[in-house]
Amino acid sequence: MTQPKSTRTAILIQSPGVATVATVPIPTLSPTNILVKTACVGLNPSDAKMVQAGAPQGSMAGLDFAGEVVSKGSQVGSHIRPGDRVCGVAFGYNRDNDATGAFAEYVVAEEHLVFGIPDGLSFQEAATLPCGLLTGGMVLHHSMKLRDTPADPTAHVLVYGGSTASGIFMIQLLKHAGFIPVATCSPRNFHLVKEAGAAAAFDYNSPTCASDIRALTDDRLAHAADCITTPASMKICYDSMGAAGGRYVALDSFPIASHSRRAVRPSWVFAMSAFGCAVDWVAPYKCHPSPADRLFAETWMRRAADLVRDGEVRPLRFRLVGDSLGDVSKGLEELRQGTVSGEKLVCVVNRSMVASARVVAKLNRVWAAFQGLLVGTMGGTSHPSATGITAFLSISLCLSVSLSLCLSRFLPSSSDGLVTLCFGSQLHPSIPSMMSSPKVLVIGCGVAGPVVACFLKQKGYEPIIFERVESPGDVGASLMICPNGLKVLERVGPIPDKLLENGPPVLELCDHKASGEVLGGSDIPTAFAKRYGQPAVGVKRTLITSWLRDAAEEKGIELRRGWALERIEESNDSITAFFEGGKSETGSFLIGCDGLKATTRKLLLARAGLQDGLPSFTGLTQTAGVSPTPDAFRGRPGARNWYGELSHVICYDMTHDKTSWALTLPGEAVEEASWGLFGDEQRAAAKKAISAALEAKGWDPVVLGLVNSAERLIKYGIYDRPELSPEQWYSGRCVMIGDAVHPTSVHLGQGANQSCEDCYFLAEAIPDFDHTKPLSTEQLSSIFKSFAEKQQPHTSVLVNGARALGRARVAPPEACVQRDAAIAQSMADRAGLQAKFDFTYSRPFQRPS
């Protein structure tokens, strides 16, 4: 890479809690320095603490970074070259040198704390590695002196705070070295530490946590790493250790008053000593140069790089918090508030570098495929036949076109001639394609689109999501993500963790008459997580869809906004979608996830000679609101219903202090022009009118309170579509899922959850991508047929059930007594209620708790 400009943008600490983006010089490199153009940075809790403390004032913030080498000092070894992709730890918060932090457009780093990023690892993933790996090595191998092969193969090591970044890396390192790691963390993160390699996980809030660990380790635990370092964490670590005592190593200065056992030898690790120079921070973080720590870090980081390259250590789960240096502040605020759990926050600094890296990864896959095909066509010999040469030329031309198409996305239009000149002419039509395309066209970016795209990405495909609107609006109300949907979302990323951080799980059900008189209740939901593997949780619709979009983009899935589908054309081995404005894209197959008013549905039915009409209005409307959770419900999260004459209200917790509610009433389709999100004046008028109408009919004061305190109000109609038979779910290389094929009214709360099930079952039916085995139209149709025949009967039951429930909820006056009696009887029948939940929530797979 060429030497950059003389200045760079960077985040500098100004005062306590204030860090700003400023322009600073790029310094002259010392002999052991490396200058790196930053692609991404990782955010650590220590970053948030340092910025909040405002010290050292004027210093550059940040520790973890990933990018490309621009230049290097005279003593840097030949293993690092300009253009290499690297990640490392920068000396952020340096009082003596304000040029060395990671939160900068260009990073000045020390050679011994930088290592190369292996092929196949993204910049985002690499940015999760350096600090955690360095800290893990210093704790386990430098301070505890643990060897690679333990003398006792049954030796356990406790990692307190196992779901932290350092904790996850320590668990992996211990597992690799032959030790048996056990961890403490929140129960919602048990799966994370076990995936990393922990043999057991313990809830640190359990009063028996220490005794349980001591029992598991047969009173012989001799090593504990404390990633939290509080009096409470230190006590559990000490109480967990065996009668013979052992080593306790903390990641921060530990409270000496908590040193309660003479048989335990405590110490703590300050990872900044790895730089080998003085650190002029306030006590106890002020230290003299430590050549021993520097030497260990130099050796360890080379070894850690090998572990990452060989797949022995995996990067952390991460979440992107922005795509510019200025967005770092958003992530630091999340860390300061303590809302981050089970994931590493990463911020993109240079979008073009990240995008280019994706293309390089694709080209590497193309080249690997090319090499495999070449070996096959040459028959493994050095003297290919004429047939082999012909095949070789065909593959070369295919590769040329693939390279040209990839590069053309990142070169200006004036470079088209250069691309053609370098990589050959267009493929001759007489030469058949010899490589299948991994590209899948996913239409729609609500719930189903990102989820199915993530599943296909895991199977080796390259999905592209096309969304009709340019930017998501503040539309819709809330969703109840039920156990069947949440089990699917768990496989996409840490969505369950985010949901449970955002709001409580449903723990009770209660049905009332409009007056508030209780018809019946149940605590069955308290066992949802144990019985089905996940609980039920309410969430704002736009929040969950934003998380899913982020999850897809974090996995490198491209999202094209403002692409409205118009028509579809198929060939023998591909499908092309045409969009408004003359845009088009070609892929192997297409998945329609474009919702209730799906264009995909209209196009597929037209192929069968059927006309798809507009969605039909059910005659019911809902006015949905968000209000502070009533005092009567605090500490009792649940789903509650009130049944009146021609009216119904449901509410459930949407966050830890907000409740989502909806009033269902008969309405007319002609009112549609007035539907949507209410402004302040319109909301005030609507609240007054609704409250007066309900009060006049003697409604429960709790419901009146929800209406009167509403901070958000939206009105919409409830629509339906005719049911489709299984053979109408697909056609050729196209298939529909979610509301595009089986839209359901809101009354059962299963729309988004059934969409998740569709994604799971469809992805299960589609084989892993194999460039040597292109999927024929016949194969795809067979796959889609199997999927549709599996799902359609189940979704049909739920769709029809939702329709029936909607009608029953708004019963006319003469039918209310009968309806209320049926509800009371249903709630009293615990076995029957459990069976209804089993029918829905046991799918799409059983997941032990």
TrEMBL record:
Write one Gene Ontology MF term: oxidoreductase activity, acting on NAD(P)H
Q: Which domain of life, per UniProt?
A: Eukaryota
Report domain Enoyl reductase (ER) positions: 17-346
Mind telling me which Pfam families this protein's record contains?
Answer: ADH_N, FAD_binding_3
* Residues that span the membrane, as ranges: none
Q: Which UniProt keywords apply?
A: FAD, Flavoprotein, Oxidoreductase
The record's family statement is: Belongs to the zinc-containing alcohol dehydrogenase family.
What name goes with this protein? Salicylate hydroxylase
